[in-house]
Amino acid sequence: MIPTGPAAGAARRRLRSLPPLRLLVPCLLIAGFTAIPLAVIVYYCFDVGWAVVEPLVFRPLIGELLANTVLLCATTTACCLTAGVALAWLVERTNLPGRGLWLALLASPLAIPAFVNSYAWISLVPELHGLWAATLITSLSYYPFVLLPVAAALRGLDPALEETGRSLGLGPVRVWARVVLPQLRPAMLGGSLLVALHLLAEFGAIEQLRYATFATAIIAQYESTFASTAANALAAVLIACCLLFITLEVLTRGRARTARLGSGAARAATPVRLGRLTAPAVAVPLAVVGLAAGVPVYSVTHWLGHTGSAGHAMSALLPVLATTAELAALASAATVAAGFPLAWLSVRHRSLMTTVLERSTYLASAVPGVVVGLALVTVAIRYTRPLYQTTILVVAAYVMLFLPRAMVNLRSAIGQAPPVLEEASRALGQTASATFRRVVIPLTAPGVLSAAALVSLAVTTELTATILLAPTGTHTLATEFWSAAAEIDYPAAAPYAVCMIVLSLPSAYLLLRQSARGVTR
Amino acid sequence: MTALSVHGLHKRYGRVPVLNGVDLDVARGSVTAILGPSGCGKTTLLRIVAGFDRADAGTVTLNGTDVSSGRTVLPPDKRAIGYVAQEGALFPHLDVQANITFGLPYLTTGRRQRRDRAAALLELVSLDPSLARRYPHQLSGGQQQRVALARALARKPSLILLDEPFSSLDAALREATRTAVVATLKAENISTLLVTHDQAEALSMADHIAVMTDGRFTQTGPPQQLYARPATLGTALLLGPASTLDGTVDNGRASCPLGALPLTRHCPDGDATVVIRPEQLHLSDAGTTADTGATVIGCEFFGADTVVTVRIAGGATIRARAAGTTPYHPGRPVAVTVHGPVHAYPRQGPGSRPDDVPPADGPGSR
C-alpha cells in the first residue's frame, strides 16, 4: 500500500525519530550475537596467519570438495527449479483434479528431514551413492522450497497482465516467456537460493550417500583433528560459498518491480483446461509425491515393523523425547525473546539502519549449522571454557540458526498491533505497561506462538550443530537416529525417524500456510 | 472557563517546522474544528494535545491544569481526554462491549455494570445495544466509528479529540455518522476538538473553526463568519468551491468581466483576485453570444442541482450552481448575473495563483 495523506505523515514522523536507546541497544547486542560464527571464523583465520591458512585452502582436497559441492548445487537446484515451476503451474493454473489437496501433498516432504529421506532410500536401495543419488534425494527433499514461493507468486499474479499480453498479439508461449516468467523470477531465485544454502549446510543426507562436500568434510576433519585450523579453514571456504550465492541472488534479482500495481484484489486466473492430458498430468504430481513422501513413509514403517519389542523401544525413546522437548522449549523461548525486540524495531521504527539490523540476522542464518557449531566450539575452548559442553552453547547455536524463521512470524505478529491501538488504549487511561498487557500481548500472541512452534520443531530435526555441541550424554531424536543409522541399524533408527516426521508435520503446515498468505522468507 | 488552552506551541521534525507558534482556546461544551490541507500540522497539534507527541515549546492546558510545558509532560493516560482515531482503532481482539468498557477501572466495575454502561453508551451513539457481543470486523465502518466514540465517552472525558473521524467512510455513511456524532456530543455537552480537511464537515459540525496553513492559524471564528468573510484567498478556496477572476479594486468595488461588484470585506485598491461562490451566479437567457460574451461549455448534473461551466468574455471560465435541472446546455449563450457581495484579495504578482491550495472536494463541495 502506498501511504497517502495523514498515514504518510505518521510514517514520516516515525521515520525521523531515532528508536529509543533501551530498544536499540539490546537489538544491537542480539545482532552482534548472531554474527559471532561469521566473525569467529574470519578472526581465527586472520589470527593464525595467512602462511598457515594458505596451504590449507589451496590444496587438491579443497579443489575436489569445491567441485563436488558446486556440482551438487547445480544439479539439485536445476532439478528443484524444473520440478517446482512445473508443479506450481499444474497446481495453480490448470484444472488438475483436486488442486487444493495437491499443494498440501506436494509440500509434505517439508516434514521429512533430508537425512531421514536419505536413510529411507538407502535402507531400501543400498547401492545408492555418489552425485546422482545425492541429486535425487536432495531434490526430492528440497523442491518445495521452490514450489511454494512460485505457486504463491503465480496465485498473486494479476491475470489481466497475461490477458493484456495476449491482446498485444503474443501467443500463449510467448506470454509465458515475456510476461509470466519475469514476474516469477524473484520467487524462483529466492527458492533456488534457499535450496543452495540448504545443500551447503546438508551433512546427514549427503554423508549417507557417500558423497563428499564441505559440510561432510568439516565434520570428518572435526572428528579426526577437533576444532583445528584445518577445520576452520574449510569452514571459511564454505562461508565464502554461502556469501557468493547470496550475492549472486541479490545481483540477478535486479531492481525491477514485480509487485502488483494498483489496488484491489486480483481475480483468480482462468485455469487451463487439460482435457485429454488430465491423466498424464495427474501422474506427474502423483509420481513426485510417491517418491518424495511415499517411499520414506513406506520405508520407515517397514523398518518400524522390525524394531522388535515395542516396550523396549518406548523405554529407549522416552528419555530422548524428553531431552529433545527440553532443548526445543529452551531454544524457542530464547529465540522469541531475542527476535521480538528486533522485529519490533524493524516494524515500528522502520529505517535503513533498522532494516539492515534485522537483515543481518538472516545473513548469520545462511551460515551452515556445521560452521555455527564449529565456531562456538572454537570460542568456547579458547575464551569461555566453562560454557563448553553445556546446554547454553547448544541453545545459543539454535538461536543463531533459527532466528530468521521466527522473524517472519514475529514481524507479522507485531503488525497485528498497530501503534494507533496503543494510542487508543493510552487515551482510555491505561498506562504503558497495562497497554502492553491488555492490547499488545493478546494481539501478538498467535504470531509469537507460531514463531515459537516453528523454532522448536526445527530444533527437533537439527543434526550437525547438535552433534558438535551437545554435552556428552545429551541425546536428541536427531543424534540418536544418526548414530543408529550410521551403524546401519535401520530398525533401531526407525522410531526416531517416525517421531521426527510426526513432529515436523505442524511446521510443514505452518510453512504451507505462510506461503498461502503470501508471506515470503 | 476553557476546556483546552494552547499557547505558543512549536514543533519541528528534524529540520522541518510543523507548528510555528499555535494559540488556541476551546470553550467548554463547544465543538472546535481545525481545518487545513493535509500536511499543515493539524494532526500534530491533536497528537500533542493528546500526549502522544511532545511539543518543542509552548504550553497545553486542560481544564486549567498545565499538562505540557517545558520538560514536564503528562502521559496520555493521565489526561482526561477521549480520542477517536481516523479508522476508529477498535481493539480487534475484543467485542464491542469490551471495547467500550476498556477504559473503566477493571476491579471496581462489576459485570452487570459493564453491560448496562455499554448498552447505555451504544444507545447514546444511536446504535442497537444488541451489537454489544459483536466483534469489530462484524461492524460496518460507520458503526465502528460510533463504537469508537462510545468507547471514548465511557470515561466521561473533559475533552474529546476527533482525528478526521469520518474520512474513511463513504459519502452517505459519512453524513449519517456525522449527524449522530454531533447529536451525541451536543446532548452530553462535551468539549470537542475536531481535525479535518473536509470543509463541509468543519462547517456543519463546528461552533468555531480555526483554519491552519503551514503550521499556524490564519483565521479563526464561527463558521458563518469565516464563510462570509475569509481573510485570505487560501481560506476562501479552502472553505468551498469558487470561481476566481482577475479584476481591479477601486474604491470598494471590484471590476471584473462580470461587472463592478460590491465587496464583503475591505481590499486595497489595485489588481485583485475576485472570488465568487457558485451559488452567487445566476444564469438567464441571452439571444446570442454577442450580447453577453458568455457561452455554456459544460454541464454536470448532480440530482438536486446542476453545476454549469460558462466561458465568459475575456476567456475565463466560471462555475454556477442552479437548482434541479437547467435548460442551459453546452454551446448555448447565456447572461450571467452576480448576487450579493464577493471576496477580493490583492493579486500577488502577475498571473500568480494559489496553486498550493488544493481545491476543496468531497461531498457537498460542488
TrEMBL record, chain B:
It comes from the Bacteria. Its EC number is 7.6.2.9. Residues 341-366 are annotated as: Disordered. InterPro entries: AAA+_ATPase, ABC_SmlMolc_Importer, ABC_transporter-like_ATP-bd, ABC_transporter-like_CS, ABC_transpr_FbpC, Mo/tungstate-bd_C_term_dom, NA-bd_OB-fold, P-loop_NTPase. One of its GO terms (molecular function) is ATP hydrolysis activity. It is an enzyme of class 7 (translocase). Residues 4-239 form the ABC transporter domain. Keywords: ATP-binding, Cell membrane, Ion transport, Iron, Iron transport, Membrane, Nucleotide-binding, Transport. SMART domains: AAA (SM00382). One of its GO terms (cellular component) is ATP-binding cassette (ABC) transporter complex. Pfam families: ABC_tran (PF00005), TOBE_2 (PF08402). This is ABC-type quaternary amine transporter. It comes from Dactylosporangium siamense.
